[in-house]
Amino acid sequence: MANVRLQNLGINLSGNQIISELDLAVDAGEFLVLLGPSGCGKSTLLHAIAGLIDVSAGSIEIAGQDMTWADPSERQIGMVFQSYALYPTMTVEKNMSFGLRINGTPKAEIERRINKVAEMLHLTPLLKRKPAALSGGQRQRVAIGRALVREAEVFLFDEPLSNLDAKLRTNLRRELKLLHQQLQSTMIYVTHDQVEAMTLATRIVVMQAGKIQQIGTPECVYERPVNLFVAGFLGAPAMNFIQGQLDAQQCFVSESLSLDLSSYVFAADGECRGDVVLGVRPEQIQIRDDGQFNGVVTLVEPMGNHLVVWLQAGAQTVSCIVNQQRSFAIGQSVSYGVDTSKISLFDPRTEQRL
Q: pTM for the complete prediction?
């Protein structure tokens, strides 16, 4: 395993500046996830690390060696793409060993690596099959295995699960996490799926428009988002945003809420007053008989082990998660409370966390 360091990185494609002045340090052995919407530059950044596209500025170091202009074959990386890209006329075994055979790896060593990775990925019974005889999940495991047999310093994953159905994504997500625990390799993973990011990552890098918005553990990014974009991008349903004012006693007041936030810890020293945006996760809003606020049920979404209930509270629509076995009718009036222990406050002008 190896660390990866990007310094003052710039990427220009077809005259468009995709990424500029980007710094990122990936620790050896960590599972780092690049998360963001389509077009934010996360895949472009991954391809630059792999050497598939040139950078316009800055440097790329892998294991302490400058690899900015090194050929992809010299970077000691294994890459898994969104498409399986398997040779249809080759067996699983031949697909996995193709790169090793091209590089002149001894036959005994190829066999050792293939057997080891095939056992790890539950591919041993499939080694003599061709891709047409495999399911989508099996094909993706072969693509992952093709990267693993290289025994590289760093593994790069470019949205490898996006073409799979929900059940297969869940299964392969678990296998990838177990694989990382077993190998302890450095892995950099690109996705727009927040569930993948939250479940796989040791750290998440949230990106927007070619810029890093926040870097942190899944818990930190979810519970203490640095701005409105990060707060709204993570979470399903997304964080509720409520416009209001904060008075001198740190009481938040809006059309539908009045909350004592005197225990709130600001991101910077000092206090705040005036216009603010209150961020409340759906699980922080509890429908209960003794709730101090009132709303009307407008939509109920059964999710199996919980309900997502949407309430109209004045002009504000809020979502909340209900874990108990309860039923709600559209138009029903309910009472609710707000858990203020993990709320967030944002400046409506800068959109930064207060």
A: 0.92
